[in-house]
Structure formats: C-alpha cells, structure tokens
Amino acid sequence: MDIDKALQENGLIGVIYSKSDAGEYTIQIFENGKHVSLEGSPNDKKRFASLHAAKLALKSHGVNKAYMALDNVYDEFGHLDFEDHQSSNKSRHDYMPISLD
C-alpha cells in the first residue's frame, strides 16, 4: 500500500501503529498529507491498550478512513538501510486499510 499517496486524500485520515512487542497502539491523524496535532484537544490521548480504543479515538476526532501500520517483519534485525528509515515510514511499516466500525 502506498501510504504517502493515501495520506494526500481529502479529509481526515487516521493511522494506528501497532508495535508487536509493546502491547499498545498509538494513533496519528493527517489532513491533506499534513500531520494534525492532537495536543490541547479534549481527546489528546495518543496511546491505547486495545485496537478498539484506538479506533474509537480516531472516530471521536472525525476520522472516517484509517490504516493500520504494522511492524515490517523484514526489518526485524535492522537490515534496511538507515537512509531508507529517515526518508519514509514505508520501510518501517506495512500499511493495511481498516474499518473503524
């Protein structure tokens, strides 16, 4: 999935990050390709103990479309080039469209 292209779509787009070893989910929201800060909003929490709670948080911010960013298993031992990590999240995660229902 080309996440860079997906994030350029109109409207609010949510991304839920899942770190397999952390047991938590974090969220980010983008609008027209730009990160939307959650600081200072009534619902500014960014870490959640369940996928369901992360989805509810995205919905409470008005997000209708979301993606799950999963750990890239191919980089489990740090084999990807350092510059690739700095230039794009694509090398660190695989992205999958998810339903917020």
General description of the model:
The protein has 101 residues and is an alpha+beta fold. It has one domain (3-98). Helices cover 21% and strands 34% of the residues. Strands 1, 2, 3, 4, 5 and 6 form a six-stranded mixed β-sheet that branches. A hairpin with a 2-residue loop joins β2 (24-31) and β3. It is globular, with a radius of gyration of 14 Å.
Task: From the structure above, extract its key features.
single chain; 101 residues; alpha+beta; 6-stranded mixed β-sheet; 6 strands
Can I get a quick summary?
The chain has 101 residues and is α+β, with helices and mostly antiparallel strands. The chain is 21% helix and 34% strand.
> What kind of oligomer do you see?
single chain
User: In total, how many domains does the architecture comprise?
Assistant: 1
DSSP summary, beta strand count: 6
Structural class: alpha+beta
Q: What is the percentage of strand-forming residues? A: 25-35%
- Total helical elements: 3
Overall 3D form: globular
**What composes the largest sheet?**
6 strands, mixed
Sequence stretches where pLDDT stays below 50 over 5 or more residues: 79-90
Spell the H/E element sequence.
Answer: HEEEEHEHE
Chain-averaged pLDDT: 78
Give the N-to-C terminal Cα separation: 21 Å
* Helix proportion: 10-25%
Radius of gyration over all CA atoms, rounded? 14 Å
